[in-house]
Amino acid sequence: MDSRFMIATPKSLMGKTFLLLGGIGSLLIALLHVAIPIIGTEAYLACGGWWLLPLLEQGSPVPALLCLGIAAVFFLWTAYALSGASVIVRLPLIRTGLMLIAVIYLLRGADIIPMLLFGSEGSEIGWVSWFASVLSLLLGACHASGIAGMWKQWKTPSP
């Protein structure tokens, strides 16, 4: 039976909510990565892309292509979260895909641990890195909680 037609339990409703939050977060990150090349050099610098400055000064398309490639990944992650929440059609390997996404977000978020242990004074680590780490932890937690809430809904194989 399609998971959209199964009886919702409080746990599955929470799972859907967390996956929706995770999907919205991924969508916003994707849109940010689309906007950066449109806005230009200031956006790259504000978002921690200082290392791309030489390429930007040369007029290279590489920074824009990198941003658009990253945006494509986040759009895919958005689709998986929405699929897991039964908002769109079920994508293949939904469990595996969402677990991978959750793990990647949590590992990216774990980047905050050295910052907390060793501090970031005098280094090139700025507020963007702190914000990205905290956001990654939150989105990883949303995906993990969503997976836990929806696991039983996904017992049937993907069509």
Task: Please explain how this structure is put together.
- The chain has 159 residues and is mainly α.
- It has one domain (10-154).
- It is built from 7 helices and no strands.
- The chain has helices spanning 10-39, 41-46, 53-57, 62-84, 94-109, 112-118, 127-150.
- Helix 1 (10-39) packs antiparallel against helix 4, helix 1 packs antiparallel against helix 7 (127-150) and helix 4 packs across helix 5.
- It is globular.
- The N and C termini lie close together (10 Å).
**Main sheet specs:** none
Task: Give the helix level as a range of percent.
Answer: 55-70%
Total domain units: 1
How many distinct helices?
7
H and E string: HHHHHHH
Poorly predicted ranges (pLDDT <50, ≥5 residues)?
Answer: none
Helix-strand makeup class: mainly alpha
**SS elements, strand count:** 0
Rg: 18 Å
Q: What general outline do the C-alpha atoms trace?
A: globular
Distance between the termini: 10 Å
Q: In what range is the share of β-strand residues?
A: under 5%
